[in-house]
């Protein structure tokens, strides 16, 4: 049973599967039936499936037959109707054919017209398409034409902008055209062309700037000078809370700011022409002299092209080269002030341009670059000024140079450049200026001293008197009371020298102006320079005059008088310096004037020269002495040369009335001592081998004349017989021989109360030997002395005895 049930179950499954396959065959496309049938043959019951398929086919045939039987009459009716329609259709066809033939005949012209219309429409469409394409290409061509025009007119920055629009906006729209490809290929070449042309313009600009730097600097320095003059005027007016002008206010040279985002001008004009006629009231600014558009254009062009760093490096490198050229001074710069001015103008012009570039561009130059250039320029400028200023020997040129350096420093300081080193260098030039002043005043003093007549200044009227008083501080109540004409005690070189000292002080003060020095520093500088003038320059000039060979005693006396009055005027020079510097002499560290010492030294030198000159004059007179040392006759008068000498001394000492008493007394005493010494030398000189008592008597008359002169008091102030002591040695020696008082001399020798205390045994022995030789000379004895031969022999013995004793005294003295 179970087996039967299982068979039935399998049969039911197979039947259901066959049913499914049949439905699938009925509903599936014929092309896809293969897999279905394959599944049938893959099974084992394909026989039964075939049976079921046959059964299904018969069922469908029966249904088709039933349907055909049901619709057969309608089919027959339709065929009948269709046959009727065929005849009518044939008629209609014939009518349509006839109508078509007629229509073709009638519409032949219309077809031709339509064909023509078609061609026109095609042409119109082509034209419209062409116009559309041309409208698309025209902006490209117009931009390219505009680019060419801009290149031709050298408007390079707009040309670069046009090139960018052409490349990025217009060309992509028509990129499939051949001319666009040509344009695209030319774009790099155009960029290089713009780059090269803009660089060429920059080179022209740099060359023009180098050539015209001095004009730019001159303009800047004139503006600085005008501003300084204006500041000085304002400082002279009473004002409260005034402040130093700021850099922004002083920045007048480039008062028009130029936008750094676009070029200032489209025309590359470089340096504009400037007329030679300059308006004194308004100096043109450097922006009026310079067109910086080439720099801005080139900067923007290189920035757009992505080569800004290359441009910056090139610009800075070229400007460094130009800076080195500008800082190279001409070899003859020191000869004229214009040489220095042109040198400074070029430097100022260079840095004015750089400062303007710094403030009108973004990063082309920076402060570090400017400071580096300025440090280099400052060191080279100071070195050049040190070298060239050392050649200057004209103080006026040195002063003008100082003023020019101050203006140069003030001009650059307005632009923010540190200039302290320049002012420090000016302090060095100040020392050189002092040296040139000293040389100049040395010549001035020399001319004054050489042209002076060394005579008291005569005045014949009150006007002349006041004029001299106005030139030199002199007060003398006794002189004021005297009637005209009268004389000042000093000569003309006193007021002239005094005024020249004041002029020197003024010259020193001029150099200290605008150096930003304190009053104390100015006072110290003036005092030190004035001390050099007094102690070195004036002192040397006075010494040279005093030491001149042809200087006379009158001139020396006047020099002493003059230096005395100049010495007294030193306090007025102190007051003069105090008044112009407002620094009291009592201030700590204030330098004192050494004028008093200078004039004292000069006076002492003059005094010594007087003494020397007097002695030389005495020697000249003594050279005229012509003694007959073996004369036997006794003269009754002093020698002529001595009389003339005494007369000369009297007249000379009469001139000494204006000298200080001590000077006159010293000169007189010195002259008398020199005269006594010279007379002693005449008496004892080796050439005089023999000497008679008669000659000694004549010599005694001359000495008496000298003693008479000494007693007459040629110079007041000597105590009684003081001046005669100059001749005491001669007097005692002559008295000893004339009185032949050897016993007294030998007995009292060495005692303080000895009558012949001033007689030296050596001197006495020398003179005694000369007398002895004369007595022994038989050739000069005449018959007249024959009867007195015994007396002569006795006297000779006495002389020999005295000589022996004198030698004994000399020996004992030496032992």
Short key terms for the protein model shown above:
two-stranded antiparallel ribbon, 815 residues, 28 helices, mainly alpha, single chain
What does it look like?
The protein has a two-stranded antiparallel sheet. α19 runs antiparallel to α21 (595-622) and α23 (661-684) runs antiparallel to α24. It contains 28 helices and two strands. With 815 residues, it is mostly helical. The relative contact order is 0.03.
Q: What quaternary form is this?
A: single chain
Instruction: Give me the number of helical elements.
Output: 28
Distance separating the two termini: 199 Å
Query: Helical residue percent?
Result: over 70%
Residue-averaged pLDDT: 78
Strand order of the largest sheet: 1-2
The radius of gyration over CA amounts to 68 Å
Quick one: biggest sheet? 2 strands, antiparallel
Which geometry do the CA atoms define?
rod-shaped
Give the percentage of residues in beta strands. Answer: under 5%
What's the number of extended β-strand segments? Answer: 2
Could you say which structural class the secondary elements and strand pairing correspond to? mainly alpha
Order of helices and strands: HHHHHHHHHHHHHHEHHEHHHHHHHHHHHH
Which residue ranges are poorly predicted, with pLDDT under 50 across at least 5 consecutive positions? 238-281, 782-788
